Structure formats: C-alpha cells, structure tokens
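Deliverable D2.4 — example input (structure tokens):
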C-alpha cells in the first residue's frame, strides 16, 4: 500500500506544495480523487486569502498545524476543501479545485447522479459533493495514519513538469485576482477534469 504523505510534507510554503499536489490522490472515506487543479493561498501576505486580515474563528484551521482540511461555505450553498500548509502558526492553504475520481466511483456517482465521470469533481463545489466533504470535516487530519478516513497519496507515476500550467486564481476579486502578481492556480494540461477559468465578478454595493 502506498504510504500517505507525512505532515512535514505539508509544512512548506503553499507555492511549493500546490504544484506538487497535482497527480496526488486525495482519499476521503474510501473515495479516491486524483488531483488535477489547485490554487495556493499564502494567508496574511495574500489579499486573496481568507487569512489576509488575521486569525478568526472561521480561519483558525488555516494557521496550522499543517496537514489538515480547511473547509468553508461559499455562495450560501457550496463547500470548498483546502489542504493546510506552511509551518504551525503561519497561515497557508491550497484549495483543491478539481480532479478525477479514480476509486469509489459508484459512491461518487450516487452523490452526483446523472453526471459524466469527467464532471464529477470538475470544480471545488462539485469536488466536495463527490467526496462527501461538508463543514463537519473542517479541521480533519489528512496525516492520521493508514486507517484514517482522510489521506493524500503521492502520484502513482512521476508527473511531467512540462504538463504543469499556472495562471490567475478563479473568482478572486481585488488585488488577489491579479494574474501577473498572483498566478497561483496550477493545473495539469490536457486533463478533461480541469475546471474552466472564470474571472471574478465585481461586487455591486446596494445603497
């Protein structure tokens, strides 16, 4: 059996961890997802991060220790899952944006019936539904050992660096959405499960 990635592996800069997660398998209660798209967030130095303004009850998990899930609710209807990185006390995480279900396909299809295999986890909200991740999993340990319900396994085969692409993060508004300063979305070129890029919509304040 392939050994799960250890906590020390996650205890690095999210910009190092993010591209190396591509091709890894995120295992959640028996469903395995080969990761094809991620986004890095660097906390208090990153205007696109939830942790930019400091630690709050909502973002406490992002401040470590590494190797845990940070799960948040968005648009009043969707869960998104991140893998906490950086050293303990430093805010950092990688959003798992998309992937291919490679194990537990029947269970994933039960959660998203009538959906093509390609689209099961094509986007962060679809991904959490396919894996069965909810807010109750916020803070879950992905480095808990062989019998743990969560784990991240290294790629079955080395990923060709020439396939790794980077660009602006999806739906991030303001300074953090600047694709020149923050090209922190990473994906594997040619993977059908990668989600389409959408720029952030400017928020219109109601008077």
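Example output (designed residues):
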């Amino acid at each position: 059996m392939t050994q799960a990635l250890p906590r020390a592996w996650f205890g690095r800069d999210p910009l190092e961890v993010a591209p190396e997660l591509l091709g890894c398998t995120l295992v959640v209660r028996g469903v395995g997802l080969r990761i094809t798209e991620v986004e890095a967030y660097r906390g208090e130095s990153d205007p696109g991060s939830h942790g930019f303004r400091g630690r709050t009850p909502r973002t406490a998990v992002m401040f470590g220790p590494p190797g845990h899930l940070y799960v948040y609710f968005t648009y009043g209807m969707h869960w998104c899952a991140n893998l906490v990185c950086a050293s303990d006390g430093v805010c950092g995480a990688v959003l798992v944006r998309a992937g291919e279900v490679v194990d537990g396909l029947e269970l994933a299809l039960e959660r998203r019936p009538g959906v093509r295999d390609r689209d099961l986890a094509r986007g962060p909200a679809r991904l959490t539904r396919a894996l069965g991740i909810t807010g109750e999993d916020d803070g879950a340990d992905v480095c808990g050992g062989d019998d743990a319900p969560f784990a991240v396994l290294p790629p079955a085969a080395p990923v060709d660096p020439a396939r790794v692409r980077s660009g602006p993060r999806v739906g991030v508004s303001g300074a953090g959405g600047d694709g020149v300063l923050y090209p922190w979305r990473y994906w594997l070129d040619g993977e059908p499960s990668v989600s389409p890029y959408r720029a952030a919509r400017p928020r219109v304040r109601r008077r």
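The two ends are 58 Å apart (CA to CA).
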